[in-house]
Design goal:
Layout: H1 2-19, H2 30-53, H3 55-64, H4 70-109, H5 118-121, H6 123-154
Helix pairs in contact: 1-6, 2-4, 2-6, 4-6
Length: 156
Amino acid sequence: MRMFYFIGCIGLSIFLVHSTGIMAEQFFQINNQITYLGVLIGFALTLYTFGLSILKDIYEAIEKISFTKIENKEEVYKSLKDAFDEIKSDIFLIFVCIIFLFINSIIANTINPFNWNVEYLKIPDIMSVSVFLLSSFALLDIMKALFGLSKLIFKD
């Protein structure tokens, strides 16, 4: 599923860069995107540590719930572990996006790297939009995982 998001983000980025004036927005300047991703990774790490700090409360809430089968309790514990694994992988994706921004900055400021026609292919622009889309999807995925955790606790 992640590969679908990755390929979809690149495809959407190519379309947006070549078909719209999206790069005219100041947001897609490298400095602004680094600030955005820095705030995003800080927010994600804060959510993760908050989740870890209430983990004891979550386990206590699970213990108070009466399950008809022990497998159901194990399923809830597995869902809890999966949610935290999902959040960790999304934080890692945001970190990788920051690294891609630095690589993008080097490519954008290097004349004809790797013998590619970078200006014609608009590689730095496509990378900037792709990084924004991927990091935004990672944030969405973090929120979905946290909402899933709340369903485990509160049975919404």
